[in-house]
Amino acid sequence: MFFSQAGARPRMWEASPSEYKKWVEVFKACDEENKGCLSRENFKVAVVMLFGYKPSKIEADAVMSSVDPNTSGILLKEFLDIVRKKKEAQLYRNEIRHIFTAFDRHYRGYLTLEDFKKAFKQVAPKLSERIILEVFSMDVLRVGTRHAFASPQCLP
């Protein structure tokens, strides 16, 4: 989609006090030995509890490689930062999905060039058709003949 080309990024988001409290409770529940940090396996359990999925090996490796080697795991502060970033990314993907769905009037799961033109006429009526065609063409070269919904990280 064109969002990834434009460099759109998730906005900073702050957790509500109750959500923050939940994150801390999950951290404490997963810190089985009360060491004040989460091991790799405990981190995976915490992600399952908060987000409903088990992190991949790649995701767990990335998180663990960012941990201070002088500690024996992920400290609470680091954990809260990781969870906040994951929540921001989740909200961003949901926002993109919502926008895409608004323009997918026929509920096909993709946008044709005509759908794309109609969408741009609604949100940017003064944008030239040439630019709309260029944006559509750039992304079509990357993902095929239609614009299907996929989060920007999934696109080649």
Describe how the helices and strands are arranged:
Elements: H1 2-6, H2 17-30, E1 37-38, H3 40-51, H4 57-65, E2 74-75, H5 76-103, E3 110-111, H6 113-123, H7 129-143, E4 147-148
Antiparallel strand pairs: 1-2, 3-4
Mean pLDDT: 80
Poorly predicted spans: 1-8, 149-156
Helix content: 55-70%
Q: What is the number of helical segments per DSSP (H or I, 4+ residues)?
A: 7
Number of strands: 4
**Overall shape:** elongated
Query: How far apart lie the N and C ends?
Result: 11 Å
Q: Give the SSE string.
A: HHEHHEHEHHE
Biggest sheet statistics: 2 strands, antiparallel
Proportion in β-strands? 5-15%
Organism: Balaenoptera acutorostrata (Common minke whale)
Protein name: EF-hand calcium-binding domain-containing protein 11-like isoform X15
Pfam family, one: EF-hand_8
InterPro entries: EF-hand-dom_pair (IPR011992), EF_hand_dom (IPR002048)
Describe what you observe in this structure.
There is one protein chain. The chain has 156 residues and is mainly alpha-helical. It has helices at residues 2-6, 17-30, 40-51, 57-65, 76-103, 113-123, 129-143; strands at 37-38, 74-75, 110-111, 147-148. The strands form two sheets. It has a two-stranded antiparallel sheet with strand order 1-2. α2 (17-30) packs antiparallel against α3. The protein starts with a helix and ends in an 8-residue tail after the last strand.
